[in-house]
Amino acid sequence: MSAPAHSPAVAGLPGPTAAELLHFALRTATDPEIVSSLPLDPQGRTWIRLDGPSGSEAWLIGWPPGTGTGWHDHAESRGAFATARGRLTEHSLAVRLPAEGWQSLELAPGLDRRRSLGAGTGRAFGEHHVHEVLNDSPAEHAVSVHVYYPPLPLIRRYSRSGPVLNLEHVERPEDWQ
């Protein structure tokens, strides 16, 4: 897929806003040619890298029934995602966590948020947004478009036990590309 004619991000310029990333994700999620280009696997998630706007990183992702990401964040990248097919559930935390210097945090009550995103809906988020995305359907595949700026420098993976969030490991781009 080719993105619209945007010049790559220039050092020192802020790049696309979260709203612009969401607009791209929503527009791309309604393109049947792009969505149908993704091979679906009944056992595991599949993905194709797309050309995002203004130097952003974009992905088309297939979600078999019952799959999810686990708790994670996208470090200093802002992002957006939109559901193209099926329904996704996002669990997130309504707090910005410290970027560094911790391995385990006890979360205050009332920070959990839940969103259900059907086909044609999406959401944008800022830096250090901690969430997990799930396809709760027992039978239907979901497909979504995700876009990040700047391109993902890393992903931090977390485990959660009640109110305790633990940093488990850090993935770098070479781990998923």
Descriptive account of the structure:
There is one protein chain. The protein has about 180 residues and is mainly beta. The protein has a single domain (about 20-175), classed as Jelly Rolls (Sandwich). The protein has two helices and twelve strands; from the N terminus they run ααββββββββββββ. It has a five-stranded antiparallel beta sheet with strand order 1-2-10-4-8, with helices on one face. A four-stranded antiparallel beta sheet has the order 3-11-12-6, with no helix packed on it. Strands 7-5-9 form a three-stranded antiparallel beta sheet, with no helix packed on it. Strand 1 and strand 2 (about 55-65) form a beta hairpin. The longest helix is centred in the N-terminal third of the chain and has 12 residues, at about 20-30. The radius of gyration is 16 Å and the shape is globular.
Protein traits:
177 residues; Jelly Rolls; globular; disordered N terminus
Cα Rg: 16 Å
Report strand order across the widest sheet: 1-2-10-4-8
Which CATH first-tier class would you pick?
A: Mainly Beta
CATH topology-level name: Jelly Rolls
According to CATH, the homologous superfamily is Jelly Rolls
| Helix fraction bin | under 10%
Order of helices and strands: HHEEEEEEEEEEEE
Poorly predicted regions are 1-11
What's the total helix number?
A: 2
DSSP strand count: 12
End-to-end Cα distance, whole Å, is 17 Å
Beta-strand content estimate? 35-45%
Class based on secondary structure composition and strand pairing: mainly beta
Number of structural units classed as domains: 1
The CATH architecture:
Sandwich
Overall outline: globular
* Mean pLDDT over the residues: 90
